[in-house]
Structure formats: structure tokens, C-alpha cells
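Summary for the steering committee. One of the milestones for this cycle was to obtain a three-dimensional model of the protein with zinc ion bound, which we needed before selecting residues for the alanine scan. The sequence and ligand used are listed below.
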Amino acid sequence: MGTKQQSSHKPVVYFYDEEMTNYNYGGGNPMRPHRVRLTTNLVDGYGLTQHMRLMRPNPKTREEIMNFHADDYVDFLMSVTPENQEEFMLQMRRFNLGAVGEADCPVFDGMFEYFQIYTGGSIGGAGLINDGTSDVVMNWSGGMHHAKKGEASGFCYINDIVLAILELLKEHQRVLYVDIDIHHGDGVEEAFYTTDRVMTVSFHKYGDFFPGTGAVGDIGHGHGKRYAVNVPLDNGMDDASYKYVFEPIMEEVMQRYQPQAIVICGGADSLSGDKLGCFNLSLEGHSHCIEFLKKFNVPMLVLGGGGYTMRNVARCWCYETGRLLNKDLDDALPESSYEEYDYFMDTHRLRIETSNMKNSNTRTYLEELKTSILEQLRELPPAPSAHMVKKPPKQEMNDELPEEDMDIRGGGQAFEDRRVVKDEDGYVSGDDAEGNEGAARGTVEVEPAMPAEHKPETSLGPHEDSIQIMDVDEVKADN
Ligand SMILES: [Zn+2]
């Protein structure tokens, strides 16, 4: 395995904007932006802010968001409010939004600003990796992996991950996406389903569980065939079982694909005791995945995702922030974490206990799963390279799904499960001709890979995104 130590003296960057943690999905919705405030309070309480650069995200514009998302969808999200939503009933249905308290993706106050800010952290982080400023960037408010080109899903409206990967593709031939949220990373997989410039690997609960996609046979399409990897798992995954599949699969992915940047969706709903999850990971087991990838010494953008037992989400992302800084944190929580909140009064400890729930993943199942995925990976050609593109990859903005797919849209992460109907290629059913499928499905158009001897012809100018550096004291003062 890769044992190179992180030799870089570049700063570790942590994106945070307290403003962003005040938005509220309302109506008892399990997704709470506030959890990132809890996380950052712990991070600060442990004194970690001194060891990294805190940055405030630069909110993204409508046009920047449209690099992936459909114009009409973005314009709708900018226009609709809880007050005027009655006028938008048809569009709400079409784009899978609903009323506060009823839908996974409600129309809530200030939501577009919230999208602009968390997206700013993820794209800004990609920019810092592109221009060589940092090799480790965190944005725990990001990681909205279910959002589609023209559709909200599972608490996600704007897919900051896809937008950040598109940014990374300006400077990197191959980007690896790894998803350890308990839910399938469907929105990101779909966007890059037909390209080999991005490899997506998702570990998730599969079977009678939101969003219903992510079978082991779903491996990508066209140029992207074999560049989507799905690891479907059952209830009760514990640290040892996770490691048993994660390490060999990721080892093989790293060797075969040789990514130049890694993006991680670090959803904490795969932890033991999550309100919506059904795995049994400890903080160490969850963090191990990120630490394992970090050893390969490839620039890494680490994002949040799901996570619905707030006190444990904060513990997890704080622990992982520490590990990304090579710090081991004392298990006794810092005094300051009790000052304003009582979230951590349950145990006063950083680490969490796992439960004695049954692990439904037998060793035989995991062994067969691992073997079949390793076989798939061994069929990959040597790492592809591609012409560098001068501009952000252009996207087709045909956002219409075939009519029959309209019915299978939606479904609630919190409230219900729906399945997407796919053919044996793992492709969403539709009447599109070959070649037009990508657009209909919501994939992005990325210049395909070229043989390795085609050297990049262009170098890009400095990253234009200006990001404000936030004074650490500013964050402390606000707590
Ligand atoms: Zn999730």
C-alpha cells in the first residue's frame, strides 16, 4: 500500500462560515446545518484551529452553479420562497421540492444563499488544490451527493461535489470520488457515469433503502464503463467488516486509476446510532477510510454529507479534522464544548460506543463482493489521461428526463424508499438513442480520455476565485 508520508508544508484548509449554520430546513427535518457549528466548536475547543488555515467560502453565483445544474432549476430555486411557493406548485413537483415539515427537500428561508455558501467552500477548496495552495481541504458543510442536474433529492438541492470535481478537472486528468456516507452517492455517480475522467466509488447500504440505486452491477457506461464502482452493503457494518472491503478495493483503485486528486463524501450517517442509518461504525472505523486514502499522498478535498445524530456527527468530523492534522485528540471533551450546548453531556467523551446490533454482512458475502469488484477493477486499462481543457467542461443542458421517469423521481430519504428502474446495464430506463443518454440522464459532458502520450497542451492561469481568509479570532469571537 502507499506509505508515503505527507511531505507537504502546505497548510491544511478548513472552510467555515458561521452564517451558513443558521439556516434551517424547518419542520423537524433531520438535516441540520447547525451540526457544522457544533463540529467547529469542538474543533476550536481542541485547539485545532491554530494548526490550519480557516477560510470563509466565497458564495457562488447563479452562473457558476449552472456549470452543472439546469438553468430552469437554478432559476426556480432562486425565486421560490415559503411565502410564494403556492405560485410554484407545478415546478415544486417537477423539481422534487415540497413544503416544510412534509418533504425531504422543503422550500425554506434563505435556502439559495445557503446553497451558494456551502458550494463556495467546495469549489473554493478545489481551486486551492488546483493552484497548489493546499493538499488537504475540508468543507464539512458540503457533500450534497444526491442532488441531480435538475432535481433536488434526499436533503440535497445543489450538488457541490459535482461542481468541485468539475473545477478539479480543469487542472487534473483523473479525479477519484469516494463516498462513505451510508447512502449511495447517486447524484455524483450519475453526473460522471459516462466519463473515465472521474472514477466514483460508493460504499453504501443497499436494498430497501434510499435512494435505491448503487447495485454492484452498475459500473458506468460508454467511456465511463468500469469507472463507477458500487459496494452494496447490508445493516450492521462494523469497523472490521468495512476495512475488509474498503482497503483492498481502494488499494486496487489507487493503483489502477492513479488519481491526481481525491474528493471524499464523508457522510457521518454510517456511524453507529445514526438516526437514519443502520451501520455500526465507530469514529475510528469511519476515520480510517479517510486516513487510509490520505496515505497515498494525493491532494484531497474532504466534504461532509449525511449525518443525523448531531452530537455524533460533530464528534466524527472533529475527530477526522484532528486526524487530517496528524493530531490524536484526548477522549475527554474540552470544557468549552459544554459552555453553550448540552449536546455532549451524554458521555462527555469524544469517541462513541458501537452497539451489539447484528451484522447482516456475512464474511462469505463480503468476500464474494470484494472478489467481484477486484475482478472488475483488474479489467481497467492503464490509467487514462486526457487533453486538458481550457475552459470548464461544457454541459448539455437538456434536463428533461423521459416522461416515464418522472414518476420514479423523488422519494424521501427520511420518510420512504423508492427504487429506480434500471436495465441490465444499470442504466435508467428511457427511450433515448445511444449517445443522447448522457444528457437525458443528467451526466456532464467531459472530454474523454486520450492515450497517455498525448501531453497536456495548455496550462491554465491562476485560479480566479478570490477567497477571503477569515481571522481565526473572528470565529472564536462568534462562538
Ligand atoms: Zn446519507
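Key point for the committee: Residues 1-6, 387-411, 415-440, 450-479 have pLDDT under 50 and may be disordered.
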